[in-house]
Amino acid sequence: MVGTRPIRHDGIDKVTGRAKYANDVQVPGHLHARILRSPHAHARILSVDTSKAEALPGVFAVVTGKDFPEVTAILREQTEGAMANMGLLSRHLMARDKAWFRGHAIAAVAADSPYRAEEALALIDVRYEVLPPVLDALEAMKPDSPIVIDGLMTNTSRTTRAGGISAPGEDAPQSNIATTFVMELGDLANGFELADIILERDYHTTAAHQGYLEPQSATAFWSADQHLTIWTSTQGPFAIRDNTAAVLKLSPGQVKVVPAEIGGGFGAKLNITIEPVAALLSMKCGRPVKLTVSRTEVFEAMGPASPAYVHLKMGVTREGRITAADARMIFEAGAIPGSPVPGAANCMFSPYAVPNGRIEGIDVVVNKPKTLSYRAPGAPSGAYAVEQMLDEFAERLRMDPLQLRMLNAAHEGDRRINGVACGPMGFTETLEAAAATEHYRSPLEGPWRGRGVAGGFWGNATVPASVIAGLLPDGRVSYIEGSTDIGGTRTTAAMMFAEAVGMPVTDVRPTVADTDSIGFTSNTGGSSVTFKQGWAAYEAAQDLKRQLIERAAKTWEVATDRVGFEGGVCTNLDDPSKTLTMRQIAARMNATGGPIIGHATVVPRGVAGGFAVHIADVEVDPGTGKVTVLRYTCVQDAGTAIHPSYVEGQMQGGAAQGIGWALNEEYVYDAKGRMENSSFLDYRMPTALDLPPIETHIVEVPNPGHPFGVRGVGEATFVPPLAAMGNAVAHAIGTRMQALPMSPRRVLEALAGE
Questions:
Q1: What is the rounded distance in angstroms from the CA atom of residue 754 to the CA atom of residue 745?
Q2: How far apart are CA 675 and CA 658, in angstroms?
């Protein structure tokens, strides 16, 4: 089964419209909710009067920040295992004494129709004291900048390998700098002394929307038996369960989350956003409540990828070997701490052997919604800086840019700046495959044309997963998992299970279960799903096979070690003419001992990072500044491509999103913190008319830490595009742009030397 291209199990439902998404949920008697949001980016809330809204016929519940339980925001008092600062997250869900960004929820209404709820919102009277906002990380770091979160102080850490965060003293000053950390390896000063060429540059990436087509939607019902059920669009039903329970001060056992199909997420649907609001309304009125946000609310309140500033200094010898690298990265976290600057720090130099290095990361809060994950969070911004500087070195040394990267490629055992030793890796093989492509070997002719290359790394996650595999009476298998499916992962899990058992994948029926029906399973994110589900599938298959062998041994009255199993068939080793198929054993399950159910709960080891190399050809119109993508190729080490079509789709999707971020996508704010392009009409994402066919080349260097050789593929592909496009445009126009997006206006400014 592994390496084939079966039709996905949910394909028919998806293309015929039978698949149920969160907004399709219809609980009898449900109410409709709407949220009143702050019109100001920074304001003190003096009063909220909801009396007129509550008196409106058809309104069943109104909640404000005062209805939320008080949850501590003190770091050392957080519950063990908390995924975030629950106190700050609760205040981000709905404002208390201050509105931290335009779009911050102030109140919510549940009514018998969406129109009635909208009418009720207009009756809520809120008095504000408007405060000056701070909208940029560099401005927010200044001593005289307005403070976003009253009482916030900087946490710091310094490590050569790993270490925790140290809390500030009680007399520390307030600050918008939430966290700083430093990673160091080797002797930085000596490394720069050994360099023949040293470059120092500043780079800037903008906020970018994840581009999911389905807005957030959730339906909540607080029943009379004090249990809460939530139907929602999420990449992490257990995170929704646990964090909703935390902010509402419920027990996790009181909350059940039913994940719907997902209309895109890319990291933005990993944690609670609207679910506790719908839940609180339901708890207040005792009726089911559905809350679906508008596209404008998605843009203004749900959170994009983090903008980043990167100051980079690197040195190389005249032969092209890296001797030292020093990076300082400043990431916007939005209104509460938690930007992906650690992701950037852990990934930016990881494809390369850097003997002497230093990385400083700074997490800064500003008056914007909390930034959310977006496919390899942080890593594209780090690679944008590193890969462009490597391109400059290649130009100065007159070296082929892929040759320079091969010369410096990390290998197993090399120590990264974060202290982690490289595991089994296929970066060299990926570079070699890129150099061998017809695209890279073909000439690029004509004026105003340029070719760029870039590499990228993502360190895939290893996290818990659970599986239940029940043998059905006809010999098929019901395969129940806890990982929500956003890229065909229910099919890849079924394929790996089928491979381990030796049965057709069409005989495996995969289902994504709710949080009451399966053991804890971590989020669908971090390029972890196929890896962890592969391990779980393998272990569940071994459990199922063990029971099949036991049933066959019982039937033949022989020891279990005298039963062989291959291709879904048990064979009597003492008399090979005696065989039992899974279908035959299944038909006699109850007569031979009852149901046969394989199960597995794993936290697997053996994770290995993924690498990608992209090649981009562009043409720039010097009259308009428009950049046209002529050709684009992705090369990536998948370890083992379980379903090659899905791997190719992930590669193409990541490239398309990265091209959009590089060329046009950005959040535009006015001086008061109002987003000026909060619609897909004004926020410019690429369409099919903007992109060429994206070519894919899968490299397979199997991961020895996985039974099927899997490496994650969904995020490494998103790391190189920003830099590959930056390098291509630089070669086309003869000047390097170090800030995104490279929109027509900015290209014209670069050509004019502005």
A1: 11
A2: 22
Q: How confident is the model at residue 720 (pLDDT cuts 50, 70, 90)?
A: very high
CATH of domain 11-131+216-292: 3.90.1170.50
Q: Residue range 419-443: average pLDDT?
A: 96
- Which CATH number is associated with domain 308-460+608-751? 3.30.365.10
Check the CA dihedral 442-443-448-450 and report its sign.
positive
Give residues with Cβ within 8 angstroms of 486, minimum separation 6: 235, 262, 264, 265, 524
H-type helices in 572-720, by residue range? 582-587, 589-592, 644-663
CA distance 393 to 401: 8
H-assigned helices in 557-712: 582-587, 589-592, 644-663
Single-letter amino acid code for the residue at 545: K
Is this structure's pTM higher than 0.90? yes
Nearest Cα to Cα of residue 408 among 326, 342, 344, 325: 325
The radius of gyration computed from the CA coordinates of the chain, to the nearest angstrom, equals 27
pLDDT at 81 over 70: no
> Do the domains 308-460+608-751 and 465-602 sit in the same CATH topology, yes or no?
yes
Q: Where are the domains of the chain?
A: 11-131+216-292, 308-460+608-751, 465-602
Q: Percent of the chain scored above 70 by pLDDT?
A: 97
CB burial readout 251-290, b (16+ within 10 A) else e: eeebbbbbbbbbbebbbbbbbbbbbbbbbbbbbbbebbbb
What's the rounded mean pLDDT across residues 23-39? 97
Residue 94 structure tokens? 């709905």
Mean of pLDDT values over 138-156: 95
Q: Using alpha carbons, select from 302, 235, 245, 231 the residue that is nearest to residue 276.
A: 245
* 461 φ, ψ (degrees, to nearest 5): -90, 155
Tokens, residue 80: 């063990």
Structure tokens at 426: 């296929």
CATH class for the domain made up of 465-602 = alpha beta
Task: At 253, list the tokens.
Answer: 């056992």
Strand partners, 199: 314
- Inter-residue contact 291 to 217 (CB < 8 Å): yes
d(CA 128, CA 44): 6
Please report, rounded to a whole number, the percentage of residues in the chain having pLDDT higher than 90: 94
Which letter does DSSP use for residue 708 in this model?
A: T
Would the CA dihedral through 211, 216, 217, 220 be positive or negative?
Answer: positive
User: Please, which residues have CB within 8 angstroms of residue 475's CB and are 6 or more apart in sequence?
Assistant: 507, 581, 582, 583, 584, 585, 586, 587
Range 668-672 average pLDDT:
97
Q: How many CB atoms lie within 10 A of CB 193?
A: 12
In the numeric block, the tokens 């000056």 are attached to 132
